[in-house]
Automatic annotation (TrEMBL):
Keywords: Hydrolase, Lyase, Nuclease, Nucleus. It comes from Nicator chloris. This is U6 snRNA phosphodiesterase 1. Pfam families: HVSL (PF09749). One of its GO terms (molecular function) is lyase activity. It catalyses: a 3'-end uridylyl-adenosine-RNA = a 3'-end 2',3'-cyclophospho-uridine-RNA + adenosine; a 3'-end uridylyl-uridine-RNA = a 3'-end 2',3'-cyclophospho-uridine-RNA + uridine. Residues 30-48 have a biased composition (Low complexity). GO terms for cellular component: nucleus. It comes from the Eukaryota. The lineage of its organism: Eukaryota, Metazoa, Chordata, Craniata, Vertebrata. GO terms for biological process: U6 snRNA 3'-end processing. PANTHER family: U6 SNRNA PHOSPHODIESTERASE 1.
Amino acid sequence: AMSTALVGYSSSEEEQEEEGESRGGGAQGPPGASAGRPRLPAPAGLPGDPDPEEAVSDDSSRHGGRVRGFPHERGNWATHVYLPYIAQEEFLELLELLVSRARTYVPSLAAMEEFHLSLSQCVVLRYHWIEPFVRSLRERLAAFHRFFCVADQVKVYTNQNKTRTFIGLEVSAGHFQLLELVSEVDGVLEEFDLPTFYKDPSFHISLAWCVGDLSGRLEGQCLRELQDIVDGFEESAFLLRIQWEQIRCKSGNKYFSFPLR
């Protein structure tokens, strides 16, 4: 069902992991090749996007055979709005338990290196729209207060064109506040004639991913075992009750931060 589709991870989010930046639900991102292209909505900022003036060749062998969701053109900046989740040591321990168990079902799974909860799809902005887009976001988000949500339900997602599968933690509390935020972000997207977020979204933090549609292997027994790990993890209640303190927008290689009050 499209409602569980992942935020439109573009195809080449995986490039700059090495930079270890911050994303993209923003990324957050799969391990990747070299030069830039529009990336996954990054977890706390997906690893690096290319400068629009960088080379624009699109050799799929350079990024794990992934296919780009939209053509990369000079002057087009892959843009994503998300809530960054800063992983603590205990969260990384939980992640390791989950990924090692899930790999007994899908050996090609890779853990995300950054974590976020997406509030937009990955959209394309022309360079000269970035500043007005960010200004409009800042105005609309200025009144929002910090809030908590709980992300403790393991769920399997595929991106829209079924070229990747993700394991994520779905939000079980705080959905209403997230919808309110999305409503404001959607308002900005509409001003710029860009696609708004999914209807009835499944808000989540992606934990791991693989190439291809392997949801069939991860659902059912695997998913039950992963949920048992989360439910039994000593620090879960503390780790997965998250207070969001800022919203972030990543556009190309630029990051913009909007603190919540």
